[in-house]
Amino acid sequence: MLVNKSFSFFGREALHIMRLGIPLMIAHVAMVGLEVVDTMMAGQVSSTELAGLAVGANIWLVIELFMGGWISATTPRFARLKGAGKPSEIRHEAQQAMLMALGIGTLAMLLIWSIVPLLSHLGTSPEVTETAQSYLSIIAWGMPASGVIWVMLCLCEGCGDIRYSLGSSLIVLALNAVLDYIFVFGKFGMPAMGAVGCALTTLSIYILWALMGVAYIETIPEFKALKIFRSMPRLDFQRWRAIFMLGLPISLSLLAEEGFFSVTALLIAPLGTEPLGAHQITLQIVALVLMLSLGLGQATSIRLSSSIGSGKPLLAARQAKVGLTICLSYAFVFGLLIAWKPGLVISLFTKDSAIANVSLAMLVFAPLFLLIDSAQASVAQILRGFEDTKVPMLFQVFGYWCLGFPLGYSLGATDFWGESYGIYGYWSGFLAGIIVSAILLNIRLQIMLGRLIEPATPDLLTD
């Protein structure tokens, strides 16, 4: 009987998570799809354009995610306020998050511009350097709009409304492909701009996406009643501090992981356009599949945050276990599919045989890499539902930078272990760092679940 009840709960909760998670998965895939489409388009032009995009995009994405990490701390906060039935607090949280996002976005824009002149010292060819500099100079203008987008996504997802995330993501993904085609290849009277055209597309998309978010909030009755844009709020620095303190570890965690890949891209750059292009392609393939687990992990985080907010800790603990099981299952299945037909996947990104051969060798380990990376990424998402961000951040910094990066650098750039393995050595370091991070984060999750269950009473287990 107990086993039947457990299976019954698993099935019901899995259905809840999937209903919330599938739209989030599609939304996350669509968001990553913007860069995936950019990589595909630039790769069809030339290896130089692909390499320039790789340098520029890796720098921009680190700053984008660092900014987004701060703002994403509001998602579980919105979920708890929603579960506690406090609409006025949701309004105040959203207004303060919006002001904070605009400020952070402006600082991010200035930071990107300050980095542009430094690229001339990277050691890449003049053509690659010029492409990367032009790419960053244009895309920097979109950072304040990106901050607004993050707030709109967090507000809607935290309140359990995934229509904006899903609908807007699909719209901008389709529009991104059209504009990329026009700007990259020079259609309908436009000059062919290559990778720089991708930056112009992203800037246009960000402005449109932000306006769509404002329009959505002002149209849907649930959000319109909050009157978020009807008055100018006074700065609430205490609220800013709360968001900052919760979001900073998330930002540092994202910086630890994405910075790991981005710094490695800069180290690979002097090796030539082929290894750098292969790194960018492999990274996009992995990121695309990882978004499936992240979407489910975020759905689980929202579910358990709402349960905690409504005083049901035992239910939250069981939701975390169900969500993690689903996340890992998805990652493993898609990893096997990629390993089954890697050549077909790579052919979508490039016609350059040298780049394709390097990428092909790296995708052999796709199932293992995706399973482990999904484990650590989805657990990190679930822990955010407990508002546990500091310890996970330390674990990820340790895994990536104290172990993974030194090992990857020693294997890829030195003869410490014998002959240098180049890009394969760097990715071996990635795998080692992710394994350690995944193990530590899973231990942390078990500790948090134990703390949640101990003081709870069985009557709070109802859904």
Automatic annotation (TrEMBL):
Cell compartments where the protein resides: Cell inner membrane
GO molecular function, one term: antiporter activity
Record InterPro entries: MATE_fam, MATE_MdtK, MdtK-like
Transmembrane segments: 20-37, 57-76, 97-115, 135-156, 168-186, 192-217, 242-269, 281-302, 322-342, 354-372, 393-412, 424-443
Keyword terms, alphabetized: Antiport, Cell membrane, Ion transport, Membrane, Transmembrane, Transmembrane helix, Transport
One Gene Ontology cellular component annotation held by this UniProt entry: plasma membrane
Membrane topology annotation: Multi-pass membrane protein
Keyword Transport: yes
Pfam families (UniProt xref): MatE
GO biological process terms held by the UniProt record: monoatomic ion transport
PANTHER family recorded: FMN_FAD EXPORTER YEEO-RELATED (PTHR43298:SF2), MULTIDRUG RESISTANCE PROTEIN NORM-RELATED (PTHR43298)
Protein name as annotated: Multidrug-efflux transporter
